[in-house]
Amino acid sequence: MSTTAAPGVPARLLRAAPWVALVVVLVVLPQVLQPYWVNRVTGWIPLAIAALGLNLLTGYNGQISVGHGALYGLGAYATALVVNEWDWPFLAAIAVGAVVCFGAGVVIGLPALRIKGLYLALVTLAVATLFPQLVEQFSDTTGGTTGLAVTSLQEYRGRMRERSVKFEPPEWTGLAADQWRYYLFLALAAVCFVIVANIVSSRVGRSLVAIRDNEVAAEVSGVNVAATKVFTFGISAALAGVGGGLLALYNARVSSGSFTLAVSLYFLVAVVLGGPATTLGPALGAVLYGLFKDVVEAEVLPEAWKPASPLLLGALLVVTVLVAPGGIVGTTRQVRARFTARRLRGTTPP
Amino acid sequence: MSQFLQFLFIGLGNGAVYAMIGMGLVAIYRATGLLNFAQGEMAMFATFFVWTLDDVGLPLWLAVIGGMVGGGVVGALTYQVVVRPVGDPHQKPLAVVIVTVGLFLAFNALAQLIWGTDQRPLDPLFGTGELQLGSTYIAWQKLGALAVLGIEAALFYVLFMKTKLGLSMRAVASNPESSGLCGVPVSRILLFGWALASAVGAVAGAFMAPNSAVDANLMQVPLIFAFAAITLGGFDSFVGAVVGGLAIGVLTDVVPKYVGFVEKMPTAPAFLAILVVLLIRPQGLFGSTRVVRV
What we know:
The structure holds two protein chains of two kinds. Chain A is mostly helical. In chain A, 73% of the residues lie in helices and 5% in strands. Mean pLDDT of chain A is 87; it is low at 1-5. Chain B has one domain (2-217). Helices cover 70% and strands 3% of the residues of chain B. Chain B has a two-stranded antiparallel ribbon with strand order 1-2. Chain B is globular, with a radius of gyration of 19 Å. The model of chain B has no long low-confidence stretch (mean pLDDT 87). Classes of the chains: A mainly alpha, B mainly alpha. At the A-B interface, helix 5, helix 11 and helix 13 of A face helix 4, helix 9 and helix 11 of B.
């Protein structure tokens, strides 16, 4: 970070430029897109938040979880039940979901202190397959495979009734319902994003990476390995829960079919494609996955080829790991660093 | 009591299948130090070969052998094209998990693409008859599964302990670099290991399928049971896979019959078994302890 006064300013502006551009694009997007596409893009945000959480755990901390779909589901059901039973405001319901998932994350994180690497992946895989069965087991509360409609008390034809949740924009905004929902989701995602960026750049963030790279060395250097790992698992789970809560409100319905093992795998896809251990990587990965699902699979692929879409994803995943293990963000950085090095070599005398 | 015996044999019969998948997992783990998350999907793929051959009119046992050959080829190709380039799983566990997850998605989708999403019925290898012992009825299919497991375990024992190929496989598993220097063709041995593991999957699938039907999701839950089995038995022990498989089979089929709370959660006992074993005795019953040097 250069802190010199006058000449530093343009450089700083230059560095801020892509971020400003990103924010502008995200804000303008719902104004130019058709409502159908605004809804689709809004649907990618829950996945992006969950991927953000998984990235904190797997990318930065090196604890492999194949079970975040279960935490996503837990957050979704917690949020749905709070909205249904207590009629709490959405944000409060999502907060409850996040807290529940934080607790669940800590519970899974405690055994993860002894179970590492491939074995942790194994345990979380079992969690992922167990979750839909758990929903079935308690189908009285959860609605099982049929699902559970997420409803709130709303005025309808002059009377208060339980109806599917809706995001009504306040008068002063002048926004359509789909745009309003997009902005709410985006704002929440931005908050999560800033929280994670701050964690990563803090002392805790450095201990996360230290633990991933060499646990013993980290411990010797004074990092409280156990506390850090459990905390990371909790935060990561809470983020997955926030994503799940948003998904429940987005669909106005939760069902066991939305939280199968495949969902956990798609989070991993998003993280790995976008770039593990990078700030924007998982969001980028989630967008790519969304584009893949809603554009390539829904619009481009012919009907007979639809089942092939996970095949393409799987192939993409394998190729990414083999060819560009840094994902999109990591690989871009590498390429840019190489160009810079070449340029510098050209200009400065050896 | 007779009812309990009946449940017990259903459990043992299913456990034999988990043990077969588990033996495939152990073969790959011992050779490459990798937990293959795509093992179940590869077995499902091989089971579709069995179904196809059976469908064109071959006798079932011949179809199973054909499925084993097909599965073996798929396993060998997978190793050669995808797994080998990734490198050492101990160094990069994340990359390896991601690759096998990618394979999981790919095989599942590929099977749906080739064979569609219909449920394909497959006849039991040992027919639908039952053996009557007093008031207990035991399906021949379950006894057959146990017998086949016994044969398979014996063949594995002979292969690993009594042949030069097996000796090479054990050498590669214990130290790939040194065995390479001694002239063992490491890559080819690993290729064979993958082919073997995948071929065994065809047999497991052929026993699993008559319980429901052949479809792309056939092996997802059995894979969890197989993982539980090798966790219990020890990741690098074939004896462990057999004992663990039978134990998990009994646990998952008998417990839910008597404990109402978990009736809709078939994988719950397996999950608890995995968790408890990894926490209390991570090397499992028969596995070897791994010492990590700092």
